[in-house]
């Protein structure tokens, strides 16, 4: 596979997008996308954790014993996630309270383990870090799209600022995970159509 | 030492775990003070809110708290309970932290009443784990404001679908029946506790 930085960027943002194409990280895509501010903080956390986990796994890749490979990777992921959690608790306590348990659940996000296994285990550190960052970015922009619709139609606000008129009746379904599920399905559909069109030309 | 031998695996895992836990413990220590201050501010903000005391920023918050709030420490069953009090229009108001079971987890908050237990002065939520957008709306102004200056005949409230405020009834959250019911219980239990503690205070 061509591992130049630009190729990695294009693949992780578009051609092999972790959420729409590889269908990873779905659980958090459904859970945290109810507001844009929650989604922003959460996805920045995922970008950070994926990038640095990939970096760490790549640096240690020749030292990690094969039998406990996944356990050690999980240790690294947990390390970075707890770091993010501690920093949020200390410096952004209100956001930490509204994100609640979801920050800790970043550990279970399949994208991170997936990239560690598929890329970091067999590539040099810097490009692995870049792969992690761009995978996180691919996840981030999809989640921001979902959150945009969920917050707009569910609360009438964007980033907490009132956008729709006050007499707009909120779509309560947008406040619950099933709405994210449907929006995600529609996004995958649109994405595939655009991809097919792109390949035809 | 063979790389895929048991000895290497154990030593490697041990050292990595030691390193990781060490670094995390260190970072945790560094931020402990900040986290504690944050928690204190959340608590003090909640107490001030239930007493309808306004403040402009965190420094003003601490100033108002130190000048206007009194912490009365009661000994109940070998545990210390803090009853917060302040004077509003020459009447003493008391506030208590409550902690009860919601639908998904513990709901923590503060409830303030006047010394005659005839009105609830205010209610504030500190933390909860209810469903965002449904039960979680107990933390929204429209719900909390119903408790401000609420007349409570019979020393209890009811959370119903269309409440009559003169009767100590407030509106539930549509779509959050269970959280509303559980929250009603929590508030009424807190009112009973306040009744007991106020009597203790008078002795």
How would you describe this structure to a colleague?
The complex is a heterodimer of chains A (201) and B (203). Chain A is an all-alpha fold and 201 residues long. Chain A is 67% helix and 2% strand. Chain A contains eight helices and two strands, in the order αααααααββα. In chain A, helix 3 (36-59) packs parallel to helix 6 (110-118), helix 6 (110-118) runs antiparallel to helix 7 (125-155) and helix 7 crosses helix 8. The mean pLDDT of chain A is 88. Chain B is an alpha+beta fold. Chain B is built from four helices and eight strands; from the N terminus they run ααβββββαβββα. Chain B has helices spanning 6-50, 58-68, 141-144, 177-202, and strands at 70-76, 79-88, 91-101, 106-114, 119-127, 150-151, 158-160, 169-171. A six-stranded antiparallel sheet of chain B has the order 1-2-3-4-5-6. Chain B has a two-stranded parallel sheet with strand order 7-8. Chain B is elongated and about 80 Å long. The model of chain B has no long low-confidence stretch (mean pLDDT 89).
Radius of gyration of chain A, in angstroms, nearest whole number:
18 Å
Helix content of chain B: 40-55%
Q: Report mean pLDDT of chain A, rounded to a whole number.
A: 88
Number of helices of chain B: 4
Average of pLDDT of chain B = 89
Distance between the termini of chain B: 75 Å
Radius of gyration of chain B, in Å, reads: 22 Å
> Which runs of chain B of at least 5 residues are low in confidence (pLDDT < 50)?
none
What is the succession of H and E elements of chain B? HHEEEEEHEEEH
Described by its quaternary structure, the protein is heterodimer
Number of strands of chain A: 2
| Number of E-state strands of chain B | 8
Number of helices of chain A: 8
Strand order of the main beta sheet of chain B, please? 1-2-3-4-5-6
Q: What global shape of chain B is seen? A: elongated
Strand content of chain B: 25-35%
Low-confidence stretches of chain A: none
Largest sheet features of chain B: 6 strands, antiparallel
Class based on secondary structure composition and strand pairing of chain A: mainly alpha
């Amino acid at each position: 596979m061509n591992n130049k930085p630009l190729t990695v960027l294009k693949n992780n943002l578009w051609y092999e997008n972790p959420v729409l194409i590889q269908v990873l990280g779905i659980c958090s895509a459904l859970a945290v996308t109810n507001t844009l501010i929650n989604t922003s903080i959460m996805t920045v956390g995922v970008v950070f954790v994926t990038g640095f986990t990939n970096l760490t796994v790549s640096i240690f890749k020749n030292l990690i014993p094969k039998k406990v490979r996944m356990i050690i990777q999980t240790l690294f992921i947990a390390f970075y996630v707890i770091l993010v959690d501690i920093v949020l608790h200390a410096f952004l306590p209100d956001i930490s309270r509204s994100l609640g348990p979801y920050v800790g659940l970043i550990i279970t996000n399949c994208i991170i383990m997936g990239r560690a296994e598929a890329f970091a285990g067999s590539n040099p550190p810097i490009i692995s870090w870049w792969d992690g960052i761009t995978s996180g970015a691919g996840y981030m922009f999809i989640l921001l799209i979902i959150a945009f619709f969920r917050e707009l139609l569910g609360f009438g606000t964007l980033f907490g600022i009132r956008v729709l008129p006050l007499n707009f009746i909120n779509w309560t379904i947008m406040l619950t995970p099933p709405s994210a599920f449907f929006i995600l399905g529609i996004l995958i559909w649109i994405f595939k159509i655009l991809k097919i069109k792109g390949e035809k030309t | 030492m063979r790389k895929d031998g048991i000895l290497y695996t154990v030593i490697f895992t041990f050292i990595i775990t030691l390193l990781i836990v060490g670094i995390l413990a260190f970072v945790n220590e560094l931020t402990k003070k900040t986290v504690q201050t944050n928690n204190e501010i959340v608590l003090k903000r909640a107490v001030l809110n239930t007493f309808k005391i306004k403040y402009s920023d965190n420094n003003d918050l601490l100033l108002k708290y130190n000048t206007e709030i009194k912490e009365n420490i009661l000994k109940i069953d070998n545990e210390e309970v803090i009853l917060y009090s302040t004077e509003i229009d020459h009447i003493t108001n008391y506030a208590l932290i409550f902690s009860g079971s919601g639908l998904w987890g513990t709901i923590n908050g503060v409830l303030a009443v006047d010394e005659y237990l005839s009105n609830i002065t205010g209610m504030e939520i500190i933390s909860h784990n209810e469903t965002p957008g449904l039960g979680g709306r107990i933390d929204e102004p429209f719900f909390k404001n119903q408790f401000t200056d609420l007349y409570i005949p019979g020393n209890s409230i009811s959370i119903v679908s269309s409440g009559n405020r003169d009767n100590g009834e407030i509106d539930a959250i549509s779509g959050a029946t269970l959280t509303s019911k559980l929250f009603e219980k929590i508030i009424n239990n807190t009112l009973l506790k306040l009744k007991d503690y106020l009597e203790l205070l008078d002795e």
